[in-house]
Amino acid sequence: MTDEAPFFRTDWVFDNLDMLALRTAEHVVLTLIGVGVGVLIAFPLTLLIHRRRRLIGQVIGIAGILYAIPSLALFGLLIPVTGIGLVTAEIALVSYTLLILIRNGLAGLDGIAPEVLETATGMGYTRAQRLWRVELPLALPVIIAGIRIATVTTIGLVAVTALIGQGGLGFVIIQLGIRRDFDTAILVGVGLSILLAVIADRGLVLLERALTPWARAQTEGT
Amino acid sequence: MTDPGLAPALAASGSVVAFEHVTKRYGNGPTAVTDLSLEIRAGEICVLVGPSGCGKTTTMKMVNRLVEPTSGRVTIDGADVASLPPVELRRRIGYVIQQVGLFPHLTVAENVAVVPRLLGWRQPRITERVEELLDLVGLEPGEYRSRYPAALSGGERQRVGVARAMAADPSVLLMDEPFGAVDPIRRERLQNEFLRLQARLRKTIVFVTHDVDEAIKMADRIAILQVAGVLAQYDTPDRLLAAPASPFVEHFVGADRGLKRLSLARVRDLPLEPVVTVAAGESISAARQRVPDGTRWVLVIDARRRPLGWVAAHDLKGDGGVDPDMAVPGSTLLQPESTLRDALSAMLASSVQLGVVVDEQDAVLGVISVAAISQTLQDGAGSPQP
After folding, report:
1. How would residue B330 be classed by pLDDT, with cut points 50, 70 and 90?
2. Closest Cα to residue A143, out of A22, A16, A50, A24?
């Protein structure tokens, strides 16, 4: 602590604002692709196991195994097949979202009061109309809760993909910080990553409120 | 609520619903309904009643094909329902269940509009119909239209459920314990409102309940089912009570059959007795002038003639105005549709043994006395009005 550099180098942050903005944007894109593709895969699988209950064990089982594989091990398995790069990174990120998304989706659909479903059928909804106009809207709060958890988890995991040349803020934390023993980069990377997670979480809460005004009638009414 | 005298009848009378040798068996398991034959006349309320496991709900659900019979057939106006696509059939039949099943994510107006929307009506016609129906069930559209079900009381949900079932003007209505989730006082009122509505609409209604008192009150005809869906008796409430067809029926309708027959007579069947009323705020001396000698109780009413409570005639003394706080709250208010049984039970619970009969706006019409009901009992229970 003599004439060494100070613990936190504000000047470095200001000199690298453009790079930090770029890495943050990259982090956001990696997360969006991961969660987006995750939702696209999880959605039809959830509808499938909701209707064919005997497949629940298998689908959740496979998603559980994917969720349990450590990310480094998964990279090791994937690199010989998909190489070092975006595809490998996203396969890993998507894998970790599936269990959360499918489990929440199923819980949302299963949580709908049976009398509501029976009335819908009894009033003459077709199966597809019942799914799109009754079941999915009612399951939405639980589905969005799953997307929130998956998004926050993915924002954390994106950093690890810096090990295979991706990483967004992970590049700042690992390549600029840890590898060079440069604390300022670690702190800035971690701080921005946490900030992203908080913003994404709050944003999804606001989205859920906007989409489900009926869920608040309970507290406002009577 | 719109004045029933002015509003036009909304629908033609209902359809004939018939069960012909209908049996329902689940796999190799127990038989839920056994060789049931039953014809429900157009415009009548048929109540299916019986102990749990008697197949009453299963029977009802065969009308809109939520359950398919194992053998036999169900017809509406002669057409076998099995020949109609289920989705179209269901859109033509109103459906209300115990928990009402309102869609929590839709507003009151959107809930009522469900079937018209499925049928592809244009928006202006839907909006108009929704307003009309909310009026019909006594919910002010301006106040209720945009509310979500979670912000409604049990009774309000029930009314929305009925409005929704009526939305596309079905000729047949299926109701499974529709008033089951409402407390007894509101239930009585909802039942009366519903009967008043039905008197105008004349739908064919299949009504399921486990409560024999409700069955007697609501039914034009009662089908008593025993376990495994065997029809024990199908008859008007009066004949069912007067001449039970089997020991099972006799046991099921209960030992108090004589008292139950009071459920068949309505308050409107008795002559209303006049009542001395004083308005809240009216000067006591002026009020006293109008009270005839020998009057024990006078009824305090508000500006819209709604009853506030009773004041003993001898307490009308001094000067100043009639203070509504002096009034003793009376028994539950009665409607012309209330049964004499409900009326008697309400009156016996109150210190003033007079029942105040009110109209749809809760304005006083008159009173009935325990003595008048007891006279009816001696005359051998009033016969139901058509």
Report:
1. confident
2. A50
Within the 101-130 window of chain B, which residues sit less than 8 Å (CB to CB) from chain A?
101-107, 114-115, 118
How many CB atoms sit inside 10 A of residue A62's CB?
A: 14
Q: Which residue has the tokens 């019942």?
A: A130
Is residue B205 classed exposed, middle or buried when 0-12, 13-18 and 19+ CB atoms within 10 A define those classes? buried
- ipTM beyond cut 0.90: no
Residues B142-155 have pLDDT tens digits of 999 999 999 998 88
Same domain as B123, residue B31:
yes
- Domain shared by B203 and B134, yes or no: yes
Whether residues B214 and B315 share a domain: the answer is: no
Report whether B88 contacts B263 (CB < 8 A). Answer: no
Q: pLDDT digits over B18-68, tens only?
A: 999 999 998 888 889 999 999 999 999 999 999 888 899 999 999 999 999
Interface A:B, Cβ pairs < 8 A: 81
User: Same structural domain for residues B313 and B353?
Assistant: yes
Q: Does domain A10-213 have CATH number 1.10.3720.10?
A: yes
Residues of chain B positioned with their CB less than 8 A from the CB of A222: 151-153
Contact A124 B90 (CB under 8 A): yes
What local confidence, expressed as pLDDT, does residue B76 receive?
Answer: 95
**Strand B79-80 versus strand B93-96 pairing type:** unpaired
Report the predicted TM-score, pTM, of the whole model to 2 decimal places.
0.75
Domain residue ranges of chain A, discontinuous segments joined by +: 10-213
Contact B369, B271 (CB under 8 A): no
Residues spanned by the domain of B44: 17-261
- Mean pLDDT score, B367-371: 86
User: Which CATH number does the domain housing residue B217 bear?
Assistant: 3.40.50.300
For residue B163, give both structure tokens. 């409005």
On chain A, the residues whose CB falls within 8 A of the CB of B101 are: 113, 115-116, 118-120
Residues of A within 8 A of B115 (CB-CB) are 123-124
CATH number at residue B351: 3.10.580.10
